[in-house]
Design goal:
With 235 residues, the protein is of the alpha/beta class. 24% of the residues lie in helices and 27% in strands. Strands 1, 2, 3, 4, 5, 9, 10, 11 and 12 form a nine-stranded mixed beta sheet that branches. Strands 6-8-7 form a three-stranded antiparallel beta sheet. Strand 3, helix 3 and strand 4 form a beta-alpha-beta unit.
């Protein structure tokens, strides 16, 4: 099955209003900027977005939020280099925020992909983040129950992909991307280069194609940080 698609617009077609969308990246590293911009162009509303942070400047995730397409953000770091878009909307009561400690966020996503509905962690015990969540004691220490995170769609960024959906990543750009690919009903990957089937050494595959539904080639992907230095605004 050839999972490659010809355009970014075709890749994001069919993402509906109200969808839960996981977006890979750690700041700008591994963030699928071009896929996010295509999602803005497609126009779905009332999205719940799962991401490490709340976006910066006026591109990528920040631009998606600025266009009023996101109702709720689940993230670890709502404050980063230039989070003015999210901050202003949050203070105005126009977007909902669920803060999740970063390790817990990663594990909730991993649990979603592994089919584990809940797990216990000591992180957040005794804080506001644990309010209303079940607590249990193990070996004399208190742990908070956390639920899995799953999504309708994951937008991720990889380095190499093949028509079967197998992926590799570039250095730290790997971050949340492989976990999100496993936790979504549909995974869309933008890659810097599509190689023929068999063109990736099986030993080097990080995300097997079984977790990927669409692959689109973006040969010169932009970095969020570079766009912000240029003062870019999207759309």
């Amino acid at each position: 099955m050839d999972k490659s698609v010809s355009s970014l617009a075709a890749a994001v077609a069919g993402i509906d209003d109200g969808a839960t969308v996981m977006i890979g990246g750690f700041g700008g590293s591994g963030a699928p900027i071009e896929l996010i911009h295509a999602l803005i162009d497609a126009g779905p509303k009332h999205l719940t977005v799962v991401n490490n942070n709340a976006g910066n400047g006026h591109v990528g995730l920040a631009a998606l939020i600025e266009q009023g397409q996101v109702d709720k953000l689940i993230c670890s770091f709502p404050r980063s280099a230039d989070p003015r878009v999210f901050t202003e909307l949050y203070l105005a009561g126009k977007i909902e925020l669920e803060i999740v400690p970063q390790g817990t966020l990663a594990e909730r996503i991993r649990a979603g992909g592994a089919g584990i509905p809940a797990f216990y962690t000591p992180t957040s015990y005794g804080t506001e983040l644990a309010e209303g969540k079940p607590v249990a004691e193990f070996d004399g220490r208190s742990y908070v129950q956390e639920r899995w995170l799953k999504a309708d769609v994951a937008l991720i960024k990889a380095e190499l992909g093949d028509p079967l959906g197998n992926l590799t990543y570039r250095m730290a750009a790997r971050n949340f991307n492989p976990l999100m690919a496993m936790a979504a009903t549909k995974t869309i990957a933008q890659v810097s280069r599509i190689v023929p089937a068999g063109g990736i050494d099986p030993e080097m595959v990080v995300t097997p194609g079984i977790f990927v539904d669409s692959v689109v080639e973006v040969t010169d992907p932009r970095q969020e940080e570079a766009l912000n230095r240029e003062g870019a605004v999207y759309p």
